[in-house]
């Protein structure tokens, strides 16, 4: 089965992880940032398809998509989906 997003996602993974940012840097660039503990406190995770993770925000049940970097592992750019 072919994934038409695979090349784009691989390029994004390389870009994000080639110069991973520290928390303060990511917050300045993207706004709110979560580590793994904070993510599991605030969201239910449905799945990963690097560099994205699909989540549901526990506070209001809103579904969304976030980006993440591997090391240090931070999640950012929560974007609500329909």
Structural features:
82 residues; 3 helices; single chain; five-stranded antiparallel β-sheet; alpha+beta; globular; 5 strands
The biggest sheet, with number of strands, parallel, antiparallel or mixed sense and barrel status, is: 5 strands, antiparallel
Shape: globular
Structural category is alpha+beta
Total of DSSP H or I helical runs spanning 4+ residues = 3
pLDDT < 50 stretches: none
Series of H and E elements: HHEHEEEE
Radius of gyration equals 13 Å
How many β-strands, per DSSP? 5
Q: Bin the helical content.
A: 25-40%
> How much β-strand is present in the residues?
35-45%
Whole-number tally of structural domains: 1
Strand arrangement within the widest β-sheet reads 1-5-4-3-2
Mean pLDDT: 95
Distance between the termini: 26 Å
Describe this structure as you would to a colleague:
This protein is of the alpha+beta class. The protein has one domain (6-80). It is built from three helices and five strands; from the N terminus they run ααβαββββ. The chain has helices at residues 6-18, 23-30, 36-42; strands at residues 33-34, 43-49, 52-57, 63-69, 74-80. The radius of gyration is 13 Å and the shape is globular. The mean pLDDT is 95.
